[in-house]
Amino acid sequence: MRAWLAVATAAVLLTGCGAAAAPSSHESPPGTVPAAQAQPLRDRALSLAWHLVGELRPPPGTRPVHLQKLPPPLNQPQPPLPTGWVRVTETLQAPAQPESAWTALLTRTPLKGGPLAPGESGVAVLPAPETGIDVAEFGVTLVPLSSRTILIAVHAQTAWLPTRTAAEHLNSAGFRSVTISAQPWRSGVTTRTFTASADIARLTSIINAGVPAPPSVVGGMSCAPLATVYTLRFTPAAAGPSAVVMLGACPQSYSVTVNGKQQPALWDNGKLRTAAGQLVEIRYPLGA
Predict the structure, then answer these.
(1) Mean pLDDT of 114-121
(2) CB 17 within 8 A of CB 69
(3) Can you tell me the distance from the alpha carbon of 56 to that of 51, in angstroms, rounded to the nearest whole number?
(4) For FRET with 52, which of 3, 16, 133, 284 sits at 20 to 30 Å CA-CA?
């Protein structure tokens, strides 16, 4: 497992409260691919989340709590998980003071070595912790309940990568042409059709080498719009499938549709935009 990318801490200055928290839970929205393909990755993501939570070593005498009223900040509603994520939470009550609990509590967790102090929440983010898993997050919050009792809230959530479908693999020999439409900012649309097998193979090879882009990650990113929007329409040579690839104004990812059915989005690394721009002879800065 790779080293943790970052450990972010935020002082919370929690006040004493006599209420305990909700029971442990996990959430698992459906994946972005057919169930037969998504389920193994979802199971692995959920297993990793439980493993991260299981690394916590609470003080002796700690027990789960199941009371309804939550102390702040744990009484804030959690936002629903995006598609392709799972979450595991544990809420415990421990006979200890925050000052004495942190060191023993975090020795085996991803937060070890972080600049933690009593009365803080710690969150660590791990990119690509395993093959097929996009990101994992682990967090712990301590809430003093009394001078000798604390509430321990721990959570782990993970996102798995979409699985590319067989339909998304484009066979260059199955297409007789590709039509590229390019619309620069505040300009008319330029459209050209190419029938050379080398041109079609160049484009399909870039698409076939693409990496799936998790919708939950792409949807949360902002972008500076690019100068040119491209649409690539692949026409089948016979009764094969047609394909449409859209490279929009935001450069994070592009969409692939085969026979009218949406396929997993792919990360946009600029290669497909460059190749399309070179074919239609639109010369803009790299990535435009």
Answers:
(1) 52
(2) no
(3) 9
(4) 16
> What's the pLDDT at 282?
64
Long-range contacts of residues 30-33, Cβ cutoff 8 Å, at least 24 apart: 30/83, 31/83, 31/84, 31/160, 31/162, 32/83, 32/84, 32/162, 32/214, 32/215, 32/264, 33/162, 33/163, 33/165, 33/264
pLDDT grade for 79, boundaries at 50, 70 and 90 = confident
Specify the residue for token string 């329409």. 233
Cα gap 230→235, rounded to integer Å? 16
Max Cα-Cα span within the chain: 77
Q: Which residue has the higher pLDDT, 106 or 88?
A: 88
- CATH class of residue range 166-280: alpha beta
Task: Output the six-digit token pair for 8.
Answer: 């972010």
DSSP state of 260: T
Which contacts (CB < 8 Å, 24+ apart) does range 31-39 have?
31/83, 31/84, 31/160, 31/162, 32/83, 32/84, 32/162, 32/214, 32/215, 32/264, 33/162, 33/163, 33/165, 33/264, 34/165, 37/163, 37/165, 38/160, 38/163
The domains of the chain are located at 6-160, 166-280
Q: How far is CA 288 from CA 39, 174, 225, 261, in A?
A: 37, 29, 9, 27
CA gap 121, 142 in Å, rounded: 7
Question: Hunting for tokens 């900040």 — which residue is that?
Answer: 73
